[in-house]
Each structure stands twice: as structure tokens, then as C-alpha cells.
Design goal:
Elements: H1 2-20, H2 30-56, H3 64-90, H4 97-107, E1 118-124, H5 129-140, E2 149-155, H6 160-169, E3 172-174, H7 182-193, E4 198-201, E5 206-208, H8 212-216, E6 225-229, H9 239-244, H10 255-267, E7 278-281, H11 282-287, H12 298-308, E8 312-315, E9 321-323, H13 329-345, H14 361-366, H15 370-392, H16 402-423, H17 430-453, H18 476-497, H19 508-528, E10 541-549, E11 552-559, E12 563-569, E13 578-582, E14 589-597, E15 611-617, H20 622-633, H21 646-663
Parallel strand pairs: 1-2, 1-4, 2-3, 6-8
Antiparallel strand pairs: 4-7, 5-9, 6-7, 10-11, 10-13, 11-12, 12-15, 13-14, 14-15
Helix pairs in contact: 1-16, 2-3, 2-16, 3-15, 5-6, 5-20, 13-17, 15-17, 15-18, 15-19, 17-19, 18-19
């Protein structure tokens, strides 16, 4: 008993530190972050020293198992290196909003005639009109003098219908004779036909908010600023949210980076361009010879090339655009494999972090693609270690007793999880976040390995978006790997629980059993992501605005480009399914009443139904549709999940897992 309490003492110390310190501190104060990250780093260092001196060095050289012990330790050493870099990075935080408030007053104090000119680049290849129209219309609606603004649609698909659409709206349609160097080559062609002082880039599926230029341009009063990057927000759910059934209670997968990690990078002056939703100084782009074409992630390489020349990147953590997240698992992996390969490519380039001139040692380290190189190998090892032990008896370390293990590893895991919950309380949940990373491992680890061997072996691939991309799919490849790991892990546990078949013994068996059980839970959650769910092409926004239907007053509670949901009193009656919807700022809309529903929350205690919900469908054309795009997509509304509903997540995941088990 005494030994068990002593083993738990370091973990209790970690919990006490977080209760007495970080839980009472603001996570946006750099001193609080630095103190907390230093504490976690000390716990991590204690663990890695123990691992090396007590569980690796004492292990006898007895053949294959000796090399297995060293392999596991080297993987942990890589994980330790990544964690230390992450802790250093997250020990700072900066919010540029107050700074830009001050700069904007000075920047826009001059007459409009003296404001700089801005070119908007919208590179496109095969996106359909339902994707492109939002971006083009939104760009043309930017709050900036029209004689200082030009919108260039850079069409590598050379489509006549897109030229016609651009001419009808006042955008400039640009093509070229070939598609050399993909997106980077397309934008370099845009540089040749444009002349603006600044260049804002929006991918074909991202709509700028009207205030985008008002909030980003003021940073360029500092002549050393080459790029300003803003976060990417989405008006649809990504496949992880959708397939787990967590659309309204779990934020999209990229929020952790854009909301938490990117501001910390900016605090260290190692922020980088993420392509879309950014704006660059033309003279800086010209200085580096245009957008770099050596890598399939031209945005990251643009940042590095500008750093080589002494320019800086700024990050403004304000929602200034909305776009399409990857809509299915195919797009999800196309996107992430491109990011992974592009990050690794920089290691081989003359302007990358290893060889690029003008970079400090700290910048070189922080631009290494450590996360891509390490995270999937570590996750794979976490799944593999208990399996190897259960089936072969090969220990991953020189093991003394459970108390020693608990005294050293549990404090580290506790410290890391508590740190992440403190740093990103609305963006992180250990079990779900781990499951998402595990799901990606089976596709991403081969990409990491192939990119190291042949970094330039795969060409640029566009993430599929929009109509024509609706097919529901089942990720059989990933599911097969996950199912195999579940079966092998569970079978290994079962074999060693039954006395007649057990072939391992010793105190590590308890640790291995708990480890295996947790892996199975994580894998089951990860398997749910493999099942695609139906999706809606035109996403609806939640509203609460006045509206009337055929003269009857109501409240508009949901609106998209083709549908409105209006709440009306129950006594409301209509003579026909063809009704007139009146919205502020729009001509009367002719709509078809296709459905009338009620909601449980609208039933009073007496049992009376208080409101009907009218589902109205309409077909907007031309400039009326443009007005609706501007209303919905340029800054008035958001689809953001503000907080994590931990109870709802737990219930949803259990129901999904139970449902899939019954179906199987």
C-alpha cells in the first residue's frame, strides 16, 4: 500500500500544480504559458532520463529483443523531441487584434486615392460553379475602393462558362497555355498580368469577409512584413465531424492549429503562410522570384523564401473568411498527403530550413517538419508495442515493477493531457483527438516514408470539392487495418487471460492489458470515421431574424442559398404550397412549402404546440443569388462550434459504436 501511494505521488504533484497554478491563470498570458510548459518539460525530461538509465541501459544484449527495446526507445526519443519543440512553441501567445486596431487608424487616415491597389487571386482548376460563385462574388464585395481592387480568376481549366460568369460580374478571367507547376505556376501567371501593390490569395472554395482588407492591410505599414495570414474557418462539417456524428458538438479538425498553435508561432516570429486567406506584398514576392515552384506546398516555401530575404510573416487570429473543409475522406487524405509531402520536400531544397540563407538556428528548427515525421510513427508504435508483447513476450523495456512504471510514465501522460486541456479547452479532448490521429496513421505513415525516399515522386493533386463530389464512400483500406489491429490486440489479450493458453507472465502483463484495452477503445472510435455519411451541398446557417410568409410574421431560423426555415405561430394557415417569403433587403421570394415540422423544445407544459417550422425551397438566379451569397458568406454568420460538449460527445460515440456493432 505504501509503495503504491509513493508511486502515485508524482502524479498527485502534477495534478496539484495544475489545480493551484494554470487553472487560476489566463492561458493567453505568456508568463503563465512559459511556466506551465517549463513544468511539463521537466516532467518529460524526468521520464526520458528514467527510460534511458533504468529501462534501456540495463537491458542485456540477448539478441532480437535487445534491438526491439532500443527501437521503442528511439521512437520515444523522437516523440520527446517533438514534445519539447511543441512546449517551447506554445510557451508564447500573441493576439494581434489590438495592434491592428491602432495600425488601421493610421493606414486608413489617408485619402482613398492614396490607398494601395490590391489584386485578389482566385486560382482554380476543376471546381464547379456552385463553389466558385461564392468566392468570386465575395471577393468583388470586399469593403475597399473599387478602383483600387481587381479580382483575377486564374483558370487552369480554361472553361468558357467561367469566362462568361466572370465577365458578367466584373472579374478578370485569366488562362494560360499549360498547367506547368500547378497552383504556383498559375499564380505566377497571374503576377504577369496584374500590377497591384498587394496580392490576396483565396482558394476557389474560400469566401473573404467584406472586412478582410480593412483588417490585414494595416500590418504592411511595417516594410519588413511580407505576408499576413488569417485563419481558415469552414461553413461545412469536415468528414471527421460528420462520420463521428459530432457535427454540432466537436469543432473541425483544423481548429487546434489555426486557433491555438498559429498564434503561438506568431509569438516567436515563425508564423507561415497557409496559402488561402493570406495577403502578400508584391515587392516581397518579386524579390523571391515569384511564388516558388519547387514544392507542392508553395505557401510554406513562399514563407521560407521571404525569410531568406529578411521579410516576416504575421498571423491575425480573426475570422475573416469561410471556406469548404474537405467534404469526404478522399479529399481529406488528398489534402493532408499534399501538406505532408510538401513539408518534407522543404528538407531537400536550397531555400528550405536546412540550407536556406538568412535563417536563424531557431527558425531552422521550428520549420523542420517534425510533426509529419514523428507523430504517425509514434502512434503506430503505441498500437504495436502491446501486440508484440502479448504474442511474443518481447518486453519493450527493462521492467522492474508496476510502481516504478506508474511513478514515471503516468505523471507525464497526466501533465501532457492537462496542459492540452488548459491550452485548448474548446479544441481538444484526449480520447477523440487520439482516435483521429490513429485513424490517419494508416494512410499517412506510408506517405511519410515514401516522401522521405522520393520527396518529389508524387505530383500536385487538387482537393476535390463541390457538386460531383457527393458520393458516399467507405474507407475499406483504413478500416481493414483498424479491424486487423483490434482483432490481433483482442485475441492476444484473450489468449493470455485463459490460463491454458497464456504464455506470458510477470508484472508488466497488467500494464500491457490496460494499454491494450485503451488501444482497442481508441481503434473502435477511429473505425467509425471510416463510414461516410450523406452530406448536403449547400450548408444552412442558423439565424434569428424577422421574416414573413404571405404576410404572416415569423422568425427566420435557418437559411441557405436554396432553402429557408421560418418559425410561425401554430394558428398560421396557407391556402397553397406556393408562398411568398419576404426577407429584409430582398425582393419577395417565390418559394415552395415542402414540409412543416415541430420541435420538441417548442411543446409547452400544457402540451400545446407553440410554433410550426415551414421548410421553404426557392431558386435564386443572377444578382439576387449574388445578394444572398453576400448576406450568408461574407461575415455576418458563422458555423463555428464554440465549445466542446463532453457529455454529448461521449453519448454520441457510444451510440455510434453500439450501432455499428449491431449492424456488423
Amino acid at each position: 500500500m505504501v509503495q503504491s501511494l509513493l508511486a502515485l505521488a508524482p502524479t498527485l504533484l502534477v495534478i496539484a500544480f495544475f489545480l493551484l497554478g494554470p487553472s487560476n491563470w489566463s492561458r493567453h498570458q505568456s508568463w503563465a504559458r512559459a511556466t506551465t510548459c517549463a513544468f511539463v518539460a521537466a516532467v518529460a525530461l524526468r521520464y526520458i532520463v528514467w527510460r534511458f538509465t533504468e529501462t534501456v541501459l540495463p537491458y542485456p544484449n540477448d539478441g532480437a529483443n535487445f534491438y526491439w527495446v532500443w527501437f521503442v526507445f528511439i521512437v520515444e526519443l523522437l516523440a520527446f523531441s517533438e514534445v519539447v519543440l511543441f512546449l517551447i512553441l506554445m510557451s508564447r501567445y500573441i493576439d494581434r487584434s489590438v495592434e491592428v486596431d491602432e495600425l488601421a487608424r493610421s493606414f486608413f487616415a489617408r485619402p482613398e486615392s492614396e490607398l494601395p491597389s490590391v489584386d485578389i487571386f482566385i486560382p482554380t482548376y476543376n471546381e464547379p460553379l456552385d463553389v466558385l460563385e461564392r468566392t468570386i462574388v465575395g471577393a468583388l464585395a470586399l469593403d475597399y475602393p473599387k478602383d483600387k481592387l481587381a479580382v483575377y480568376v486564374l483558370d487552369d481549366g480554361r472553361r468558357d462558362w467561367l469566362r462568361t460568369f466572370c465577365e458578367g460580374r466584373g472579374a478578370i478571367h485569366v488562362t494560360r497555355t499549360d498547367n506547368a507547376h500547378a497552383k504556383a505556376g498559375n499564380m505566377n501567371n497571374g503576377l504577369r498580368v496584374s500590377s497591384g501593390d498587394f496580392i490576396a490569395v483565396f482558394d476557389a472554395d474560400f469566401v473573404p469577409y467584406r472586412r478582410f482588407l480593412r483588417r490585414t492591410l494595416p500590418f504592411f505599414l511595417d516594410e519588413t512584413i511580407g505576408i499576413v495570414q488569417t485563419p481558415q474557418h469552414f461553413f461545412n462539417v469536415d468528414p471527421v465531424q460528420s462520420n463521428l456524428g459530432l457535427e454540432n458538438i466537436w469543432p473541425d479538425e483544423q481548429r487546434l492549429f489555426f486557433d491555438e498553435i498559429a498564434p503561438s508561432r506568431d509569438g516567436w516570429d515563425v508564423s507561415f503562410c497557409c496559402g488561402s486567406c493570406s495577403i502578400a506584398r508584391r515587392t516581397a514576392v518579386d524579390m523571391i522570384g515569384g511564388f516558388p515552384t519547387e514544392s507542392i506546398t508553395e505557401d510554406l516555401l513562399t514563407t521560407l523564401s521571404m525569410l531568406n530575404k529578411g521579410y516576416k510573416t504575421r498571423y491575425l487570429n480573426e475570422r475573416l473568411s469561410m471556406g469548404l473543409a474537405a467534404e469526404n475522406l478522399t479529399g481529406y487524405f488528398v489534402q493532408r498527403e499534399r501538406w505532408c509531402q510538401g513539408g518534407i520536400q522543404t528538407l531537400y531544397l536550397h531555400n528550405g530550413p536546412l540550407r536556406g540563407p538568412g535563417l536563424s538556428l531557431f527558425q531552422r528548427i521550428m520549420f523542420l517538419p517534425m510533426s509529419w515525421l514523428v507523430q504517425y510513427l509514434v502512434r503506430f508504435a503505441v498500437l504495436l508495442v502491446p501486440i508484440v508483447y502479448l504474442w511474443s513476450g518481447a518486453l519493450p523495456l527493462y521492467f522492474t515493477n508496476v510502481a516504478d512504471y506508474v511513478s514515471n510514465q503516468i505523471p507525464l501522460l497526466t501533465a501532457y493531457f492537462l496542459l492540452m486541456l488548459w491550452l485548448a479547452p474548446t479544441r481538444y479532448l484526449p480520447l477523440v483527438s487520439t482516435a483521429v490521429g490513429t485513424f490517419a496513421t494508416f494512410r499517412m505513415l506510408p506517405t511519410v516514408l515514401s516522401s522521405l525516399v522520393r520527396p518529389f515522386g508524387k505530383p500536385f493533386k487538387v482537393t476535390p470539392k463541390g457538386s460531383g463530389n457527393e458520393a458516399n464512400q467507405f474507407d475499406a483500406y483504413t478500416f481493414t487495418w483498424i479491424a486487423a489491429f483490434i482483432v490481433v490486440t483482442a485475441a492476444g489479450l484473450l489468449i493470455n487471460i485463459v490460463p491454458e493458453t497464456a504464455h506470458i507472465e510477470g508484472s508488466f502483463s497488467t500494464i500491457a492489458a490496460l494499454w491494450s484495452g485503451l488501444n482497442v477503445v481508441v481503434l473502435v472510435i477511429a473505425s467509425l470515421i471510416c463510414f461516410e455519411k450523406p452530406r448536403r451541398l449547400l450548408q444552412a446557417f442558423k439565424l434569428d431574424e424577422a421574416a414573413d410568409v404571405d404576410g404572416s410574421a415569423g422568425r427566420l431560423v435557418s437559411l441557405s442559398l436554396d432553402k429557408a426555415v421560418v418559425a410561425v405561430p401554430t394558428e398560421t394557415r396557407f391556402k397553397s404550397t406556393r408562398v411568398t417569403l419576404n426577407l429584409e433587403g430582398f425582393a419577395p421570394l417565390q418559394a415552395e412549402l415542402k414540409q412543416v415540422t415541430q420541435r420538441r423544445g417548442d411543446i409547452s407544459r400544457s402540451g400545446d404546440q407553440r410554433r410550426y417550422y415551414l421548410h421553404l425551397h426557392f431558386d435564386l438566379r443572377g444578382f439576387e443569388r449574388d445578394k444572398m451569397i453576400i448576406k450568408l458568406y461574407t461575415g455576418n454568420y458563422s458555423q463555428e462550434v464554440p465549445d466542446i460538449d463532453k457529455v454529448a460527445i461521449s453519448v454520441n460515440l457510444m451510440l455510434r459504436a453500439f450501432g455499428r456493432t449491431r449492424t456488423a
